[in-house]
User: What shape does this take?
Amino acid sequence: MGRWEPDARGRLLRAALELFAEHGYEATTTAQIADRAGLTKTTLFRLFADKREIVFQGQGELLALVTRGVDEALNDASAWDRMVNGVLVLSGAHAHEHRTTGRILDPILARSPELNERAVFKRSAITSALEGSLIGHGIDRWQAGALADLGIRAYYSGYDLWVAVDDSSTLADHVLAQITVLRGAAAQALEAAAPQPHPAGVRSADG
Amino acid sequence: MGRWEPDARGRLLRAALELFAEHGYEATTTAQIADRAGLTKTTLFRLFADKREIVFQGQGELLALVTRGVDEALNDASAWDRMVNGVLVLSGAHAHEHRTTGRILDPILARSPELNERAVFKRSAITSALEGSLIGHGIDRWQAGALADLGIRAYYSGYDLWVAVDDSSTLADHVLAQITVLRGAAAQALEAAAPQPHPAGVRSADG
DNA sequence: TACCTGATGCAACTCAGTCACATCAGATGT
DNA sequence: ACATCTGATGTGACTGAGTTGCATCAGGTA
Assistant: This one.
């Protein structure tokens, strides 16, 4: 346990968020972060793979979560229901405190291309995990891809809404609502493409 | 024109691909690349924003392409047709030589997390460009998002197929085929979710 | 008291990326 | 020919991320 000051990771995270908010991400050095946390650069890099990971710590667990959600759906669940369950289990991982963190993080993230790139990568990793889990349950790979895109899109826009408002709502509430919205939108978009009952030939829009 | 040896960018790209293939991306230093190209590190970083961009040079133009494709669709084109046109114009940008480059690049890319992250970022940027263009034409934002995801997914899996086979087919051929496949798959996945014929009033997240 | 263990510090290192300044090859004008 | 202008390249020093081997230190155990 904590022989030295406890919770080195937490202290580093808080120090980093403070400094990022004050001076921006790029203008903050890892030495400064370690310094404010009462540690050294070496320890920082022992606890985090790189500077960006300070901000995204724990996102690795999300991959396991979404997979678990897909796996734990009922045996006769449809592809759609498996996807929904994956995204819902994913959403369940966020406590109310994450809302505050999200509010602090968002502007920092928006101003830093480097952080943005990592964020996109995490999103992609989660999407791939969802897609892979669905495929693992025998779902057609193209359906799995489309479902994963839709589900993760719902998750992220639900997250944005959840962070933006200030009520007692759960992340899962917003995500579920977004799934419904996106399902309707996707259906409408596809309807315009394939009005015939049997999805056959497409007319390309020659340029 | 070339007062010195011409085509510095091309020489650097070739040198980089050689070295990456020989020793891997991470094990190759920028100085080595510049050296083999008969240049210096400084010049390398004058021509490329960073080490990763050597491999992804020119992807920035793709954003403009997909936007142009969406813009140049017929005035009364449906949301779907605008998306298709955007993706097709995007596909038209690749000559046959890109196939060879793709074959060399793919294994390098697969072995390097760093390059992978950049690749994902580029994909995301193209998706956002497509989504934004569609929204700019008055298309509902949720539809735009879903359409962009589907279109770019078709583009990338079409690209994979195009690179994998060795015939006279065009990238656009494969992408178009993938759009059809994905449209069918998405329709099927949604059908299981919403069996009711009228996807009517969708309630947005309470806010 | 002696030992063990895991978390931390220290110092030196490599490499990506930046910058100010010098240089060099060719085009232009006289 | 000669001087000059211009843009592409080289030089060398610098910052900061990330790594590594070794020392140290706090606490638990015998």
Summary: The domain at 8-53 of chain B is CATH 1.10.10.60 (Arc Repressor Mutant, subunit A).
